[in-house]
Amino acid sequence: xxxxxxxxxxxxxxxxxxxxxxxxxxxxxxxxxxxxxxxxxxxxxxxxxxxxxxxxxxxxxxxxxxxxxxxxxxxxxxxxxxxxxxxxxxxxxxxxxxxxxxxxxxxxxxxxxxxxxxxxxxxx
Length: 124
What we know:
globular; mainly alpha; disordered N terminus
């Protein structure tokens, strides 16, 4: 192989590993931050929809997209997602990506729902 071509391959491999370990990704897992955020947001969003779906006033899936339910979705989703993200960031420093994600969802979703419900009850 030509020396310049082999140097290009080495530089290409090096730049890819540097990109994965830069501030655009989690240094331990190598996962891009945007990927982990989307993988965290989707289950939290689905948990919010399940919570609303089991509500006694919801009779069909189309009821989930009414203005009142979308406003409540924002109220439930935002703190729950932020708590799950904080839990994920805490565990991602100590554990691998999959374990951190599972722990963030198992701890963050119930904790977020609990805190939102308790805040609503305290404000009444």
